[in-house]
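note to self: the first set is below, dont mix up w the second
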Amino acid sequence: MSQEPKLLDRLRDAIRTRHYSPRTEEAYLMWAKRFILFHNKRHPSSMGADEVNAFLSALALHDRVSASTQNQALNALLFLYRHVLQDPLPWLQDVVRARRPMHLPVVLTPDEARTVIERMHGTAKLIAQLLYGSGLRLMEGLTLRVKDLDFTRKQVMVRDTKGKRDRATMLADSTITALRRHLEDVRELHNDDLRAGCGAVALPDSLARKLPYAQKDWTWQWVFPATSRYKERETGIERRHHLHETVVQRAVRMATQESGIAKRVTCHTFRHSFATHLLERGHDIRTIQELLGHRDVATTMIYTHVLRLGARGVRSPLDPA
C-alpha cells in the first residue's frame, strides 16, 4: 500500500503543476514550514483563521517584516489551504491583510545612473546597462536566453515575466557592441561545455521533453551563465545555471558607495529610473506601461509623481515664474 506524500511534497507538486516560478516555490515552502513550526508542528488542516492571524501578527510585531512580506506569507498559506488541503476557506474574510504603504521609488538622474554604471565592470556592468537601458527587472535580465536578443530590431524579448506575460522592450544602441562581444565569449564557454560532455541548459516547463535537442542548442543558452557548473539533483545532469543575482547586487552597492551618491540604490532603481526618464522625455504613459510590462496603467502612473516638476508641471510659489 503506497504511502500518501508528505504535506510539503504535495505543496511542491501543486506549485509546479501551476507553473509557478522556482523563487515562488521556494518562498511558499518556506512560509508553510514557518507556519507549522510557529504552531508547534500542528497540522494546518487542524488550524484556521485564528492561527493564520496569530502567525501574521507575530511576523509584523516581533519580526517587523514589511507589509509586502507579510502578504506574501498570507498568499503562501492561502495557496496551501486552497490547492493542497482543498479547504473552501469559509474563514477567508476573517484574515486581516496588511496594507502596503505607498512609497515613491528612488530614482537616479541620468548623470547619476551613468556614474554608477561607469564604476562597474565586466558582466555586472553589462547587466546594469540592460536594467537601465531596457527597463528590466534583475531576474529578467539574468534569465535572458540568446534567442531573446534581436540585434536587427534592437529589442529584447522578456519571457515568463512577473504576471506570466511575455513582452518586448528596447535594446539600447550603446549596449549592442558590448553584448555581441560578450556573446562571443559565452559561445566559446558553451563549446567548452559541449566538448566536456555537458552544455545542456535547463528549459522551462515541459520543453525538455518536447524539444530534446534544445537543451544543447546555442540559441537556448543563458546570455549570462554562471562561472561554474552544477549537478542537477533530480536528473544528475551537469548544467550551468545563470549568473546569481547577488553578483550584480554586490557590484551595484559597491559602485554606488564609490560614486558618493546619497541615495539607496538597488538593481531595481535602474528600472525606476528608466521609466521616469522616458516620461521626462515626453513619451506616452501607455507606451512606458507596455515596455515595463505593467498590467495596470495605475502602476506606471507612480512615476509621474517623481518627475522634477511633479505630475502636472506645478512650480513652487517660492520659485520665479
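second set (the one i keep forgetting abt)
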Amino acid sequence: MHISLFDYSLPDKLIAQYPASQRDKSSLMIINKETGDITHGSFSNIVDYLSKDDLLVINNTKVIPARLIGIKEATGARIEILLVRDLGNNIWNVLARPSKRLKTGTIINCDDKLSAEIMRKNEDGIVTLKFNFSGNFMEIISKIGQVPLPPYIKRSSIKSYDTERYQTVYAKEAGSIAAPTAGLHFTKKLLDEIKEKGIQIAEVTLHVSLGTFKPVTETEIEKHRMQSEYYEITKETFPTIKMAIHEQKRIIAVGTTAMRVLESVDFNADNPKKNLSAWTDIFIYPGYKFKVVDAIITNFHLPKSTLLILVYAFAGRKLITNAYQKAIKKEYRFYSYGDVMFIT
C-alpha cells in the first residue's frame, strides 16, 4: 500500500499547542464501525458509551524528563539530549543535536552531578552515551531535565503545567519519552465513575519510545520496520484480560500503545507465574486481523504516521477518512494535546 493513502491536509491552527482547560473537557467523536455513524460529544460523558461488561485497558507508563541540556566540555557548545532507551549499566541510546561534530570520547556536562561520554554514533542517527553521576540518576534528571514535548508544539518554552498535563493521572511506571496521549483525557473522578458503573480497568505498561513515532519513510508501508518498545503485563492482570476474552467482553484499548500490547501477547497461553515482559515491534496496518481489541479510544494522529495507519486498519480507510474530514470541518483539536475519538 502506498504511503500517500494515509495522507491528509490539516490547517496549522488545528494543531493543539496547549491542553484543554480541563482534562475531560476535550471534544469526543464517537464512531460506530458497523453502521458508519459518527456523532459528537464531550469526553466528560465517555462513561455513557461504556457498559458494565466492558474491560478498559490503560497504559500506566510514566513520562520521564528525558530532554537534557548539556555543554560540550572541549568547546562549550550547547548540546540537546533526548533519552531514548536505557541499555543498562548507565548506558543510554539518545538523540543528540547538533550531532555532526560529536565524536567518540566527547564529554558532555549536564550538571555538576551528571556528565556523559559518547561511546559511539550509530548509522540510524542514535548516539550511545555512558552517563557518570553522583547519586540517583532519575532523581537528578527530575531536577534538571524537561518534559520532551513533541516538535509540532511550537512554543518558546515548556510551561510549568506541562509537567502535570503531559502525564496521565494513572502514570506510575517510569520509562516513556512521550505520553500515551489518549489517556490524558481521564481524570481521577472520571475513572471513579467508570468503576462505579461496574466496568473493569486493567493496566498494562508500554514505554513509548521512537518506535511509536519513527516516520514511515518507505513508499510501500509494508516495508516499514518499527523499532521495538518494552512492555509488561503483571501476572495478576494477564488472567483478567484472558478471562475477558473468554467471556467475550468488549475490550477497549485506551490508546494505540495499549492496543499494541494487547495484540502482541498470546492470551491462549497459560497464566504466567511472574510478570510477563518483552519487547514488541508490531506494526499494525490494513489487512491485520485483530485478535483482542474490540474498541479503541485514541487521539487524532499525524498524516502518514504508524498511529494513523493503525487506526485505518482498525476501522477502515473510508470511515476514518470521513471522520477526519468531519473533525477538520468542526475544528477539532489535533495531536497530543488535542481532542479524541472513540471507535467501537
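remember for set 2: The radius of gyration is 21 Å.
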